[in-house]
Amino acid sequence: MRDEEKDQRVRPGWPRLALGALSGALAGFAALAVAEVVAAAVRPQSSPVIAVGGASIDATPASVKDWAIRHFGTDDKLVLQLGILTLLAVLALVLGALAVRFRRVGAAGVLLFGVIGAAAAVSRPDSSSFTDALPSVVGAVAGALLLYVLVGRLTAPARVKAAQSGTGSEEAAGSACAGWDRRGFVLAAASAAAASAAVGAVGRSLNASHGKDAIASRNNVVLPNPGSPAQPVPKRAGLRIDGISSFVTANKDFYRVDTALVVPKVDATAWRLRIHGKGVRRAVSYSFDDLLQRELIERDITVTCVSNEVGGPYVGNARWTGVRLADLLAECEVKPPSKGGRADQLVSRSVDGMTIGSPVEDVMDGRDAMLALGMNGEPLPFAHGFPVRMVVPGLYGFVSACKWIEDIELTTFDSYDPYWVKRGWARKAPIKTESRIDTPKPFARPKAGTVMVAGVAWAQHRGIDKVEVRIDEGPWQQAHLAAEDTHDTWRQWSLPWKATKGGHTLTVRATDRTGTVQTDKRIRTIPDGASGWHSVVVTVE
To answer: What is the pTM assigned to this prediction?
Structure first.
């Protein structure tokens, strides 16, 4: 390499460094756009952002996940993806600036990220082919080539000018900095940006249309009348109080907590469920139509996420329609451990690779554990598990509520740890007795006089017997309970409070039908659910 070229590479000048960074950003944009199109041809989950995001979720400590859910709620996945894109943008800027001095190194850096994305894609639990690596690889190659070309517009003319000067002085280097191919760079950069935007739009459109067969299959589902319908909800189960949670949670308002960055869209006509494992006479496979043709049950069941903090929103009540899980297991000659069964754990697997372990004893003890096909009178929404999910009253979702289920294996707790257990959560997790104040809201400023304090309480599979409210450090006052639907649903409560001016702390606790009083001991969600009394602070004016 000539001395003038070496000098030019050592002192590229800030204008060219900035343009190099811009080149890196454009290369990153192009890489993601191309990867999006290729992912549409392979499967949306193979997109590098989705694959790396999924791998990040799996590698994140349970306490960090819990923090993310607590602070970002159901937007935690969006925050994660935005974080990944931000990090990629910063790295692309750095690689672009680096490429001004070391052109091949910058391009190689882009290829390295393609390798990382490819490795993440093929290592996902739901990956079944090395074709999942294609989006990351093809996108990285496109990005690396673009970066190499754009940086070439910044460096080649400068080197020529430096060589012609016949000197290695700073004056020659400065002249060389000013001699880059402006017109060529601008045309190349603008063309790359426009092409990447067009390709990205096509990719997003193709991915959005992915799963059209699944959408059509859901639209064609007609749920038969259940052979065992739910009883009508008692008229007095829902209190007419402003601010209290609706007794039945609408599908659109139902909480969603899972690890899927892309909601799986499963074609019900192609879906199959396999039941196999210890104690199963022979492996059995069911189609969606097989389940529809069986006797369906309909039940009102409140489900709760283990990530629900005291007073949190991750609890909801719906009318579920499905097939008794115990009946399917019994037909496979599965027995609970109490009756000599060989398996004590039921491991359910979803189409995205999630594994959830449930106690066989619980799903076969007579409770209305089911493979749900419907939710509030319609086929399951995709976000809540269409075509089939598990619902087990009395157990937190992480040990029962497998969405998009496709496999059930009978095994033992000693021989297999499912997804959440590997990350520090409990193997067994019955829902704790809890209560929540819905109104007044924290830091509300009600007027002096009668203020209605109201909320919900739940202790699924045991039922709520009593709810009490305490004002400041005063005595506990028994609240009015709304009518009970079933012991598997939450129960609304209310207390008229003669509010006096000033600041006050309102606290609630519940007692379940076993006589267990909700504990005041504050415990975080890990490993088996939060506990403690819910309180709100208000200022009465």
So the answer is: 0.86
